[in-house]
C-alpha cells in the first residue's frame, strides 16, 4: 500500500482509505510537521495518526525509571491539545512506540497514505531526532514523505504551502506519478504548480500538461525550461516555493540498494518543505 497508486482524485494528496501519519518528538521541528500533517488530513478528510517513537533506554530498563513513559504521555497530551486547537474536526489517534525510530517509521509507512516528518529534533537523552533519520526514512519509505523545516527564528513554519508547488521532470524518474503528486498537493491551497522540464522533452511535456489540465482545471500551471541540474533547480526554487516535489526511484541497483536520485541533495539544501515520492518504473 502507499505510493502514487493509492491516490484518488477526490483527495488532495493521499488515499481516502489511508491515514496521514506524522512523527513527533516534542521538538519545534516535530510540531511544525504536526501542523502540516493536521491540515492535510483536514483537507483530505482522512484520519491523522501521530507516532511518537522512543529509543529503548537501557538506563531506564536497569533502574526501573518511568521517565520515558512520562515523557511519552506529556508529548501525547500536547499533540491532542495542538490538533484540537488547529483542526478540531479531524479524527486523530496517537501511538507511543519503542525502538529504532528509523526502522519503526519505515515499517509504519506501509500503512500510510503520507508520512510527515521534521528535519531535526531534540538532542541529549530525551530526544532522538537527527537529520539522518528523516533523510533515511524519506529515501526508503513505502509511501510519499514530506519533510518540514522549522523557521530560522524557531517558530512554526506555515502549516500549508503558501507559494508554488514546484516539481522537476527528472529523466531518471517516470514523470507522471511525481507530477500527479504535485498537482494534488497544490489542491490544498488551489495554488499554482510550477513545472521545470528539459527543453528536449517538449512533446512528452505537452502531452503530460494536457492530461493534467483536463484533470485539474482549477489549478494554474507555470512551465519553464531547466537551466541546470534538477537538484539545483529545485533548491533554487525552494527559496520562494511552498513545497518542492521530487521523485525517488524504487528499483534496486546492481548492488541490491535503491538509489535516492536527487532526493538526498534536495532534502539537505531546500529551504521549504520537501515531498519525496517513491516511483517505480512500472
UniProtKB/TrEMBL annotation:
Belongs to the universal stress protein A family. This is UspA domain-containing protein. Residues 21-149, 186-278 form the UspA domain. InterPro entries: Rossmann-like_a/b/a_fold, Universal_stress_UspA, UspA. CDD domains: USP-like. Gene3D superfamilies: HUPs (3.40.50.620). It comes from the Bacteria. It comes from Streptomyces tateyamensis.
Amino acid at each position: 500500500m502507499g505510493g502514487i497508486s493509492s491516490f484518488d482524485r477526490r483527495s488532495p494528496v493521499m488515499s481516502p482509505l489511508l491515514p496521514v501519519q506524522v512523527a513527533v518528538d516534542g521538538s519545534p521541528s516535530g510540531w511544525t510537521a504536526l501542523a502540516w500533517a493536521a491540515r492535510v488530513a483536514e483537507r483530505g478528510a482522512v484520519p491523522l495518526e501521530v507516532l511518537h517513537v522512543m529509543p529503548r533506554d537501557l538506563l531506564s530498563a536497569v533502574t526501573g525509571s518511568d521517565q520515558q513513559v512520562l515523557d511519552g504521555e506529556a508529548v501525547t497530551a500536547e499533540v491532542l491539545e495542538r490538533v484540537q486547537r488547529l483542526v478540531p474536526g479531524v479524527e486523530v489517534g496517537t501511538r507511543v512506540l519503542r525502538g529504532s525510530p528509523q526502522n519503526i517509521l519505515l515499517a509504519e509507512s506501509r500503512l500510510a497514505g503520507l508520512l510527515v516528518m521534521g528535519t531535526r529534533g531534540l538532542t541529549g537523552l530525551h530526544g532522538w531526532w537527527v537529520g539522518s533519520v528523516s533523510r533515511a526514512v524519506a529515501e526508503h519509505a513505502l509511501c510519499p514523505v514530506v519533510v518540514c523545516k522549522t523557521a530560522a527564528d524557531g517558530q512554526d513554519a506555515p502549516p500549508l504551502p503558501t507559494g508554488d508547488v514546484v516539481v522537476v521532470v527528472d529523466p531518471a524518474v517516470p514523470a507522471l506519478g511525481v507530477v500527479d503528486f504535485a498537482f494534488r498537493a497544490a489542491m490544498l491551497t488551489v495554488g499554482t504548480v510550477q513545472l521545470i522540464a528539459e527543453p528536449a522533452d517538449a512533446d512528452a511535456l505537452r502531452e503530460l500538461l494536457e492530461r493534467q489540465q483536463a484533470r485539474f482545471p482549477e489549478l494554474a500551471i507555470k512551465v519553464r525550461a531547466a537551466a541546470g541540474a534538477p537538484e539545483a533547480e529545485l533548491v533554487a526554487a525552494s527559496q520562494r516555493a511552498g513545497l518542492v516535489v521530487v521523485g525517488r526511484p524504487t528499483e534496486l541497483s546492481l548492488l541490491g540498494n535503491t538509489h535516492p536520485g536527487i532526493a538526498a541533495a534536495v532534502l539537505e539544501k531546500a529551504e521549504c518543505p520537501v515531498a519525496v515520492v517513491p516511483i517505480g518504473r512500472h
